[in-house]
Amino acid sequence: MTIADTAPAASAAVPRALDGAISRFVDAESRRMRRKRLTNRVLATSFGLFVLLVWHVATEAGFVHKLIIPSPIDTFWATGRVMSAAYFWPNVSVTLQEIFWGFLFGLSSGAILGISVAMFEPVRATIYPYLVALQAPPKIVLAPIFITWFGFDQASKIAIAVVMSFFPMFLNTLTGMTSVDPNAVKLMRSLTAGRWKTFRYLLLPNALPIMMAGVKLCWTLAVLGVIVGEFVGASAGIGYLIYAMNFQLDIAGVFSLIILLSLFTLFVYQFIEWLESRIVFWKQL
Amino acid sequence: MTASLIEGRNVSKVYATATAPLVALSDVSFGIEEGEFVSLVGPSGCGKSTLLSILGGLEERTDGTLVLDGKHHDAPRADIGMMFQTSVLFPWRTVRENVLLPGIILGLERKQQEARCAELLSMVGLDGFGERYPSELSGGMRQRVGLARLLAHDPRVLLMDEPFGALDEFTRETMNIELLRIWERTRKTVIFVTHNIGEAVFLSDRVFVMTPRPGRLEGIVEIDLPRPRRTDVMRDPRYAELVFEIRGMLGVDH
């Protein structure tokens, strides 16, 4: 919303005859918006239902063997079976811990190193070339080595998650810290602000929107890293369960775990988006 | 000669470029008195912004001497305020918080700053806008906030780098009138960069005319129009004369 320079004088002077026309217009506009939102929701929902129906018909009618793709109903029952099994929660807890620590370490190391590289010239000169070089290979190639180094337990999965989620956080922080209006920097200098005050009052808040985008990437990659790590070698965890069930041809069980994992990831992702809207509120103004 | 508030002697600035060194400012000498309104006018590349940055202590000069208030001057000082072509308001701070920023950075007393902020906002015609965010304001209003922030820590010298250059003609004129009104009340030393000759004549006591390649101070024009000035000064034949004198010095009338 922008207020024109002349706004205060104009606002009171709407002729009465126009008043009715304006409120009729506003009503019609909001009706149109509501209808549009409803139509969009109906479209999305019916597409989802359609896909479910195709899935259901294809599997129940035997076009695809149920062993290869279980039907929606089978998947539903499998979800109940998996969630009530004794092995479920201990494995969930293992994976959640790995994700939590991987995300936390990846996030904080990325942010701290990004800030350091942006703020301190010697740090940039020393480590930046290596970080750029390390960014090139897909981090997944490290998974087998990390299992060798850190063992079958949680440490190796956390390490993979850290390595995977570190880079987007690091790069986004660095980008945020350096993409700053040169005039704003001049302003701070002219006010005799030192390094710390420039960081506190300008560089950090200026970087927050891009950093929050990094946090979201960081989250999805931490989950990915942990699951991949459990695929490569683990004795517990959701990735391990998926791998084992797949091996036993319990595809319905696999489906249910994938759905549960997706719901969880999505839920946290939306929580981060909500946090983002709080932290960088000025982007929504 | 008597010492001016700001004195430059043979100030030069050379930039290293990939090909040849670029002389941005060549042998500029001048004196600026306390309370004076001086404009730097010239086309792009005449070194006016460079000179302003040097005056602000933001850029090093390659050669020459610069004295402010009897002391050598080559670093930012709290008693110099700067304003730019863009308002450079921080979007995460409200209007009030933006105006309070200089005081916070300089560690000035909070209560006093709050009172001054309210006073300044009302002076620039933004009463009741303190809790708004910059994105809710028009371009002209943002520069008004910039003006209030410029004055927040009560600097002695105001350096303004084309502050109204991005505004439309009508808003610019309103802002010029506003600036004059504020200047007449506060009598700060103002150094105002612009490429608009009419604006420079309307505002200034003296106009420094600068020409490019290399950036030089071509001459200084005394603006002997009466003060306080209102827009009707532009109808004064002397106004037109001065504008054309400066145009002649810049070689715009071929």
TrEMBL record, chain A:
SUPFAM superfamilies: MetI-like (SSF161098)
Domain ABC transmembrane type-1: 92-270
Keyword hit for Cell membrane: yes
CDD domains, alphabetized: TM_PBP2
Membrane topology, record value: Multi-pass membrane protein
The keyword Membrane is annotated on this UniProt entry: yes
Membrane-crossing segments per the record: 38-58, 99-120, 127-152, 158-177, 198-215, 221-244, 251-272
UniProt subcellular location: Cell membrane
GO annotation terms (biological process): transmembrane transport
GO cellular component, one term: plasma membrane
Keywords assigned by UniProt, alphabetized: Cell membrane, Membrane, Transmembrane, Transmembrane helix, Transport
Pfam families, alphabetized: BPD_transp_1 (PF00528)
Family: Belongs to the binding-protein-dependent transport system permease family.
Protein name: ABC transporter permease
Lineage of origin: Bacteria, Pseudomonadati, Pseudomonadota, Alphaproteobacteria, Hyphomicrobiales
Automatic annotation (TrEMBL), chain B:
Protein name: ABC transporter ATP-binding protein
Gene Ontology MF terms in the entry: ATP binding; ATP hydrolysis activity
This protein's record includes keyword Nucleotide-binding: yes
Record organism: Methylobrevis albus
TM ranges: none
Matching PANTHER family: ALIPHATIC SULFONATES IMPORT ATP-BINDING PROTEIN SSUB (PTHR42788:SF13), TAURINE IMPORT ATP-BINDING PROTEIN-RELATED (PTHR42788)
Cross-referenced Gene3D superfamilies: P-loop containing nucleotide triphosphate hydrolases (3.40.50.300)
Keywords of this entry: ATP-binding, Nucleotide-binding, Transport
Domain ABC transporter positions: 6-237
Family: Belongs to the ABC transporter superfamily.
